[in-house]
Write a structure and sequence with these properties.
This protein is mainly alpha-helical and about 80 residues long. It folds into 2 domains: about 30 residues, no CATH class; about 40 residues, no CATH class. It contains 3 helices and 3 strands. It has a 3-stranded mixed beta sheet, with no helix packed on it. β1 and β2 form a beta hairpin. The protein is elongated and about 65 Å long. It starts with a strand and ends with a helix. The model has no long low-confidence stretch (mean pLDDT about 85). It binds zinc ion. Zinc ion binds next to loops. The site of zinc ion has 7 residues, from loops.
Length: about 80
């Protein structure tokens, strides 16, 4: 008996009583699951501002602060890059 360790689905029933665990076709492999791909997770400042406003729920004071910090980070990153070149 081969069970999926993720969803418990029977992958193969060999007729043996001993249960082995694997990953079925519909569950992601552990390596695929842990592999983080943030390359598509780039948001513009307006989106970030909106999200912060929703989360904090104030009059936009915190989101303004967040945007200012992000701009500062960007400026720092640009400066560092220029230094390296
Ligand atoms: Zn599964």
């Amino acid at each position: 008996m081969l069970l999926c360790e993720k969803c418990g689905k029977i992958i193969a029933d060999s007729g043996y009583e001993k249960v082995h665990y694997g990953i079925c076709a519909s569950c992601p492999l552990p390596s695929e699951e842990t592999k983080e791909d943030n390359s598509e997770l780039l948001f513009d400042l307006e989106t970030i501002r909106e999200v912060v406003d929703i989360v904090i729920g104030d009059d936009g004071f915190r989101s303004k602060e967040v945007i200012e910090i992000l701009k500062m980070e960007k400026a720092n990153a640009t400066r560092t890059t220029q230094k390296v070149q």
